[in-house]
């Protein structure tokens, strides 16, 4: 039997010339240049450029965005970008970057407004690219998911407090545009809050919705559908959506009035729930129970729920061993949501609401892209950081949309993209005043990178 030497016998040495790691990140920078992100950031942040400064604030933010997209989670991770000037250009030092973040944080409202404006302008350019259809439906609702999450803090930072999950950190509410089953999603807003902030804060949801609409092109704002869990199911927020003429699908707490209505719903009112492929979902049924709820408003409240609101219930047999809640009825797990969408099959409305779970994937990916631990001490600086994290998330999504559309990589999560595409090494070769970045011939995903580069080159103005 022939023995093989273990791979651990490989000897490391230095001296390789013109080698470049993260060569696949050139796809991110090419995307940034083509969609005008580089120039837009420079213009938006020009008020914060110090006199006689060498480094442009927009370039610094773009470098930081790139570092976060590649997996960085603090300012010092810019070192990986700085070490490769041939690929990323001249990158500012850590003190210079820190001073810029401090200046932006000192004028946080204006700086956040500038960053968000640059983000929105770039998004509109991406969505209006003539050669590539927009990542949202041409007709029908543009779904925006709102969801709160916990961001742990491992040191005493400004605004970090105990949370309802008995942890310590922050409790932001985040918003994402859903690209549907053939794509990922985009970050369109986030409200950073202290850890003890409640999930059902109507004011926070209203302010975030206002920011979300400002992030979207004007021609799609009348098609927006807000989707949220029971944390968003607050009467003041639903009235705000009603008055703004926005569609919604919002979870509600199954309180005693609704629990009392469930037994009164006749058997023939229940319909089989469906899965995304259109097949029946075993052990799950849905019904519009609005007609059987005697009073949707407490007796001491003068203001009822908005007109045209429907209450749809879903009941499903829980998994063996699952614990039922106080409002679950006759062994059924009951979930409730409100919507103002009229007509259509109840099962399709329920499926649309259930697909809100895709927001959990978007939050997980955002945490994998710099949001797992807010690295700065001041609350304002972490607000700036969260906005840059959202930009890094969208730079990845825009690269997938423009360069990788029609391939499996269009739906890959950031962690997979880094492992297969962004982290690939290459060799820079200069010849006849032209630089060529050569990738490994036998790397399984080299062709995917080449195809993406050609697609981006075809979009160049």
What do you see in this structure?
The chain is of the alpha+beta class and 461 residues long. The protein is 37% helix and 17% strand. A hairpin with a 5-residue loop joins β10 (271-274) and β11. The longest helix has 25 residues, at 379-403.
Helix/strand/pairing category: alpha+beta
Kindly report the spatial arrangement of strands forming the biggest sheet.
7-6-2-8-9-13-12-11-10
Number of helices: 15
SSE succession: EHHHHHHHEEEEEEHEHEHEEEEHHHHEEH
* Radius of gyration from the alpha-carbon trace, in angstroms: 25 Å
| Net shape | globular
Mean pLDDT: 89
Helix-strand layout with pairing:
Layout: E1 19-20, H1 26-34, H2 37-44, H3 57-69, H4 79-82, H5 85-88, H6 94-106, H7 108-127, E2 142-148, E3 151-152, E4 161-162, E5 168-170, E6 173-178, E7 185-191, H8 202-215, E8 224-228, H9 235-243, E9 247-252, H10 256-261, E10 271-274, E11 280-288, E12 310-316, E13 333-339, H11 346-354, H12 358-371, H13 379-403, H14 414-422, E14 426-431, E15 434-439, H15 446-458
Parallel strand pairs: 2-8, 8-9
Antiparallel strand pairs: 1-14, 2-6, 3-5, 4-5, 6-7, 9-13, 10-11, 11-12, 12-13, 14-15
